Amino acid sequence: MQGRMKSHQLTERQIESLLIEEQVGRLATLNANGFPYITPVHFVYFKRKIYIHGLIKGQKIDNIKNDKKVSFEVDKMEKFLIAELPCDVNTEYLSVIIIGEAKMIDNEDEKIEALKKIVEKYTPSLAGKDFPEKVLKATGVIEVSVIECTGKFYK
User: Fold this and answer.
1) φ/ψ (deg, to 5) at 111
2) What pTM value is reported for the model?
3) How would you write the pLDDT of the chain (155 residues) with one tens digit per residue?
4) How far, in Å, are 59, 72, 88, 116 from residue 38 at the CA level?
5) DSSP assigned state of 124
6) Parallel, antiparallel, or unpaired for β 25-30 and 69-81?
7) Beta bridge partners of 139
8) How far apart are CA 4 and CA 55, in angstroms?
């Protein structure tokens, strides 16, 4: 465990709050050559999982099909903590790091449920509207099952 984690751990409630409130997360996958590939994504957290939507094709999708192991990160920077010396400046923040396994959702009902949650989070004025069939076919939903989750803060 990192040194600061011992005294600066977020509670489960604080972790969930950050995952629910923040607008952008970062999904890390591994490409075919074993290099990390990090993508900023819109996401929703429910059922203790992360759901991400996007096109059904692309590098992150190829990477997930090749290796389901992923990491996901969310952070919220509050402010700089200014000090007398440049090396002593710090940051007030909250962050969550998840290690998990990703898969594409194939079941249409599960896919629609996740997409509805994403719409509720980002565009609540559009909640309850149907998704056109053509759009559903072109949209992929990634489900990240959480294996390990840590959260920390600094103030």
Assistant:
1) -65, -45
2) 0.91
3) 455 556 799 999 999 999 999 999 999 999 999 999 999 999 999 999 999 999 999 999 999 999 999 999 999 988 777 888 888 878 889 999 999 999 999 999 999 999 999 999 999 999 999 999 999 999 999 999 999 999 999 98
4) 10, 9, 29, 25
5) G
6) antiparallel
7) 55
8) 38
Give the tokens for residue 122.
């980002």
How far apart CA 124 and CA 106 sit, in angstroms, is: 25
- Cβ-based neighbours of 9, under 8 Å, separated by 6 or more: 150, 151, 152, 153
Q: By the 8 A CB rule, do 122 and 21 touch?
A: no
Q: Which two tokens stand for residue 41?
A: 């994504």
Give the tokens for residue 67. Answer: 């290796």
Sheet holding 90-104, edge to edge: 36-41, 25-30, 69-81, 90-104, 139-154, 49-55, 43-46
